Amino acid sequence: MSMMFAPRLTEAAAPTTHAAPTWSPYDNNGGTCVAIAGEDYCVIAADTRMSTGFSILTRNYSKIHQITDKSVLASSGFQADIRALQKNLDARHQIYQHQHSKQMSCPAMAQLLSNTLYYKRFFPYYAFNVLGGLDSEGKGCVYTYDAVGSYERSGYSSQGTGMQLIMPVLDNQLKSASPLVLPLRQSTTPLSEVEAVDLVKDTFASAAERDIYTGDGVEIVIVNRDGIRHELMDLKRD
Amino acid sequence: SIMSYNGGVVIAMKGKGCVAIAADRRLGVRGHTVAMDFQKIFEMGPHLYVGLPGLATDTITVAQRLKFRLNMYELRENRRITPKTFASVVANLLYERRFGPYFVEPVIAGIDTKTGEPYICNTDLIGCLNEPDDFVVSGTCVEQAFGMCEALWEPDLEPLDLFETISQALVNAFDRDAMSGWGAVVHVIEKDKVTVRTVKTRMD
């Protein structure tokens, strides 16, 4: 337990002592991302606040990046690493398009993102990603990642500083039956597009109340068969 | 971390002329679940309850010491204690141990029987009082609980609606925490009666 102290090492027994590190290559710029997959749409949202420590750097920063016509990446964490990751994915996608004469599907992009993250397993991208879009059949898909590329397709997800606040709310509203129950049910939510967008707005409003790193505004991107649509909503600026 | 050694969560909410206090039932030793019927909410008066999430040994000890102080109060004053005063008793007990604290972060819920006014509050482990108008949470899944309460709570809920709201908030919050769960108990305190219900939950 934390109350017990280890016996002190003498200088002879511990010739090398490491000073506490003063510089970290990482910083956390805060923020929260959410994505919800529907039958024929996908909603991806992120707040627009960028912070460092207890200060706000800007109230109007986009954490959402469109990679293909059908894939949208939302990331929270260290924005410098995230920017580098986005550029990396864009470059890889360009190469794919030259080689295959078509865009990558969302499941393919999901795998690419996982591989890209694991490539830097021992000096990771400090990025907590949620990839949303439509799969090859036009159904909504959401992929959620950890910092080193472990990923899973699910019906909804959140990442970032407000993740712990938002996830149980999404569970309550969207949780699908266990995959052990047969016949196998879709992981997408039966909610309509408008209901899903309203749910996202409500969850961000709640998260902004209690999470100091979430606020200022919400950028919502909706991907459906007609294309990609953007919405903006104001949040509390405190 | 000492506060997450045994696990557990308590939430309290205000309603229209009523309050509700709810807790999970798990007692664990780090990851190992030891009991699924561990009491974290204690009755301190006919309309006054205190929830004590945190280190289980201190849950029991603080409950016993509080009961003692409460009994002494009732003997001396010859009347029931009000929730607000009781909150000060709790804060005082905890601050007495300022440099070697009890590892509990209590949640108090009650109705002032004279005025009918609902009251909730919580304190940190050294007795700093927080008296909001809506809800209080404490335990190993506070983030999750805050998110749920913030999304579900609205003012002036009737007792049955308050029961539904607090139950959903608690259950969905501790379903995202490995150290809490294994059943839930909910007390709804109204001016004239107290209803205790156990909620069927995932047992993991």
From TrEMBL, chain A:
CDD domains in the cross-refs: proteasome_beta_type_1 (cd03757)
Keywords from the UniProt entry: Cytoplasm, Nucleus, Proteasome
Membrane-traversing stretches: none
SUPFAM superfamilies named among the record's database cross-references: N-terminal nucleophile aminohydrolases (Ntn hydrolases) (SSF56235)
Localization per record: Cytoplasm; Nucleus
Source domain of life: Eukaryota
The keyword Cytoplasm is assigned to this record: yes
Alphabetized InterPro entries for the sequence: Ntn_hydrolases_N, Proteasome_bsu_CS, Proteasome_sua/b, Proteasome_suB-type
PANTHER family, per database record: METALLOPROTEASE TLDD (PTHR32194), PROTEASOME SUBUNIT BETA TYPE-1 (PTHR32194:SF2)
Similarity section: Belongs to the peptidase T1B family.
Annotated function: Component of the proteasome, a multicatalytic proteinase complex which is characterized by its ability to cleave peptides with Arg, Phe, Tyr, Leu, and Glu adjacent to the leaving group at neutral or slightly basic pH. The proteasome has an ATP-dependent proteolytic activity.
Oligomeric form and interacting partners: Component of the proteasome complex.
Protein name: Proteasome subunit beta
Protein's organism: Sphagnum jensenii
Taxonomic lineage from the root: Eukaryota, Viridiplantae, Streptophyta, Embryophyta, Bryophyta
From TrEMBL, chain B:
Keyword Cell cycle attributed: no
Compartments where found: Cytoplasm; Nucleus
The keyword Nucleus is annotated on this UniProt entry: yes
SUPFAM superfamilies: N-terminal nucleophile aminohydrolases (Ntn hydrolases)
Protein keywords: Cytoplasm, Nucleus, Proteasome
Major place of residence: cytoplasm
Alphabetized CDD domains for the sequence: proteasome_beta_type_3
Gene3D superfamilies documented for this protein: Glutamine Phosphoribosylpyrophosphate, subunit 1, domain 1
InterPro entries in UniProt: Ntn_hydrolases_N (IPR029055), Proteasome_beta_3 (IPR033811), Proteasome_bsu_CS (IPR016050), Proteasome_sua/b (IPR001353), Proteasome_suB-type (IPR023333)
Job description of the protein: Component of the proteasome, a multicatalytic proteinase complex which is characterized by its ability to cleave peptides with Arg, Phe, Tyr, Leu, and Glu adjacent to the leaving group at neutral or slightly basic pH. The proteasome has an ATP-dependent proteolytic activity.
Quaternary structure (record): Component of the proteasome complex.
Family under the similarity heading: Belongs to the peptidase T1B family.
Protein name: Proteasome subunit beta
